[in-house]
Amino acid sequence: MGQENNTADVESLQKSGRRSGSCLNAFLITSIIVLFALVAALAAFGVMAVKKLQSKLDVPRRVSESELFEKMSGAQQPSVAFNMEKFAYLEAMKSSLKNGTMEWADVKYGVGSSIGSKFVFDSHQMSLKPQQSGVYFMYVEVKITCTSRCNTSVVHLNVSNKLTCDVELPSHKKSVSKKCWTVSTLENEGLITQMRVPDKGFQDWKLDLKNSGLGLFLID
């Protein structure tokens, strides 16, 4: 009789062990599934967050010319919202107005420069060259002030036959600002800005260096 009870106890323990093992296996499998589900959810959330952040930082690939002009020509130091490698800005170096090639220089701010990596500026030739073919937004802005008694005149600017800008200078005004812009397809060509002025009557008109420059931005 004692032997039968021992046998029954052993079988009961074995069954209990098998049930416990089954429960443990089920718990482990469930935990693993839940863990994978959490990892997948976190990964999906991370991708969505990154895409949302990029959508806020990146420049839209298709914007109207007027919107781009307002954003690009409103400040001399480009916003972080614009990808700096696609942007270049040059500032006028000399205030005198005369016939010939305009002299430019890049703008330094912190450890950076106003010339993005997709451009090359030749300070000897005064040539700004995009390294990538594409559609570009180009603008030139000038501010010209009268330092004494000035005559009515006009300044003609030409950026490699891609952009022309005529600035009328009335004798009754002490300061004139003008911005001209265009959207053009450019190959790997250097852009040089030529100035043309009348032979006389320009000694008292001067270029405001901080408010005169050439900007270029890769759209597509």
From TrEMBL:
- Name its GO BP terms in alphabetical order: positive regulation of activated T cell proliferation; positive regulation of cytotoxic T cell differentiation
Q: Which InterPro entries match?
A: TNFSF9, Tumour_necrosis_fac-like_dom
Entry-linked Gene3D superfamilies: 2.60.120.40
Give the residues annotated as coiled coil.
none
Cellular component aspect of the GO annotation: plasma membrane
Keywords assigned: Membrane, Transmembrane, Transmembrane helix
* Membrane-spanning residues: 26-50
Per the record, the domain of life is Eukaryota
- Please indicate if the UniProt record lists Aminoacyl-tRNA synthetase as a keyword: no
GO MF terms listed in the record are: tumor necrosis factor receptor superfamily binding
The keyword Acetylation is annotated on this UniProt entry: no
PANTHER family registered for this protein in UniProt: TUMOR NECROSIS FACTOR LIGAND SUPERFAMILY MEMBER 9
Report what the protein is called: LOC107390450-like protein
